[in-house]
Design a protein that fits this description.
alpha+beta, FAD/NAD(P)-binding domain, D-Amino Acid Oxidase, Chain A, domain 2, eight-stranded mixed beta sheet, 10 helices, 19 strands, elongated, binds flavin-adenine dinucleotide
């Protein structure tokens, strides 16, 4: 059996939630170890659009919801982290866009009115015109209104890489996890046959939380999954665009983000309503056709005939909610030494870490001293879906 280890906090799952938490705990002097069974960021995180929401999208519903409130402070916290003076040091992470835009292609007065009536976005939205428009929308044929939101868009692979660096020696590739119990109390995990004891264990394994809970003999908290069928478009004709395009409903008709592929070309990553229920029901060819129709309708001046198209199916994992609605905040519950949760948004990773820190503080958990960790098998970094496109 490999050498037994001990740590303050044992984190399971190396997506943005686990990695951000790990970085914050280490900064506060806690000993940590993070277990990852596949690749860092390879669950939902590197498949996300990288938008650091400030709540604007949810404010489209017209009412100020809990989500709008909780999320409103996230852009500031991420900006500070990116500038190297926040709660974790994200210096070097690539900022793809300093703003996300809201784009109303027609005369959707109703939506815009309820949007501006919302407290969550008041004072943080400016209309842009002419040369201030995102470059992909600067065309004589463009009609409609565009608003600049105080939200950021990040290159998530570079974020995951930076957070992994901040984990230093505290990462461990793990394929089999079993509970380690003493007198019926969970005192750690047995990881690939190695005993790892910890004061607290945090499950932040996204979709993997359900299976881990089952391994621990627990049914709660229940998890829900919501599928998406995203579309990728690649080609030298693309210009960067980061925008929610408004439709008739409360959700953006399409949300476009733009990501750099390793070969220097841009990739448009299309989500929003296009990727939700109807999109999920379509097969890949039909989904590409639907996306082509949307783009021809919204951006007829962009010639996409030579573009490469593909789709990506991905599940969002969250705590179960009635009616499969999106939860309002990062979510965390604890039962003894075990804490389990989902950030519910990449943007809410700081909120997830806040909740863990508050639980440690409440329980009087303090950093202890341990022998240095031996060299451990390392999990790889995930690559983004757009790197696989030809
Ligand atoms: P994940 O990133 O899924 O990480 C969980 C990790 O746990 C994985 O690496 C997995 O391999 C590991 N794991 C699982 N089981 C085990 C196990 N048994 N042992 C060890 N490790 C295990 N949010 C935003 O804020 N902005 C956006 O623009 C945005 N866009 C999105 C677009 C899409 C298409 C999707 C699907 C989501 C988007 N989200 C967005 C939501 C966001 O991506 C997620 O909320 C966030 O990434 C979840 O992070 P996580 O760390 O909880 O989970």
């Amino acid at each position: 059996m490999s050498q037994a280890l001990s740590t303050d906090v044992l984190i399971v799952g190396g997506g943005v939630a686990g990695l951000w938490l790990n970085a914050r705990l280490r900064r506060q002097g806690f000993a940590t170890l993070l277990l990852e069974r596949a690749s860092l960021g390879g669950g939902q995180s590197v498949k996300s659009q990288g938008i650091i929401h400030g709540g604007a999208k949810y404010a489209l519903h017209g009412a100020l919801t809990g989500a709008s409130e909780a999320i409103a402070d996230m852009p500031r916290r991420w900006r500070e982290a990116l500038a190297g003076n926040g709660e974790v040091d994200l210096a070097g992470v690539r900022l793809l866009s300093d703003a996300h835009y809201l784009w109303s292609p027609g005369s959707l007065a109703g939506n815009i009115t309820s949007f501006f009536a919302s407290k969550a976005v008041r004072g943080r939205v400016d209309q842009v015109k002419g040369e201030q428009l995102p470059s992909a929308l600067q065309h004589p044929q463009f009609r409609g209104k565009v608003y600049r939101l105080a939200e950021l868009v990040l290159d998530v692979p570079s974020l995951i890489k930076r957070l992994a660096e901040l984990s230093a020696d505290g990462l461990l590739a793990a394929s089999s996890i079993e509970p380690l119990r003493e007198h019926d109390e969970l005192v750690g995990l047995v990881v690939d046959g190695r005993e790892i004891r910890a004061q607290r264990i945090v499950l932040s394994a996204g979709q993997g939380n359900a299976q881990l809970l089952a391994t621990l003999g627990l049914q709660q908290p229940a998890q829900q999954q919501r599928p998406l069928h995203m579309v990728l478009v690649k080609g030298p004709m693309l210009k960067p665009l980061y925008a929610h395009c408004l439709g008739a409903g409360p959700k953006p008709r399409v949300t476009v983000t733009t990501h750099p592929a390793g070969d220097g070309e841009w990739v448009w990553y299309l989500g929003g309503d296009l990727a939700e229920a109807d999109g999920v029901a379509r097969d890949e060819a039909a989904q590409i056709k639907a996306a082509q129709k949307e783009m021809a309708d919204l951006l007829p001046w962009v010639d996409l005939t030579a573009a490469h198209w593909s789709t990506l199916r991905v599940e969002r994992a969250e705590p179960a909610q009635s009616g499969l609605v999106r939860p309002d905040n990062a979510f965390l519950v604890d039962q003894g030494s075990l804490l389990v949760g989902w950030p519910t948004k990449l943007a809410l990773a700081p909120d997830f870490a806040d909740r863990v820190l508050a639980a440690l503080d409440r329980d009087g958990i303090q950093p202890r001293s341990y022998p240095p960790l031996p060299p451990l098998p390392q999990p790889p970094l995930a690559t983004a879906a757009w790197e696989d496109m030809r």
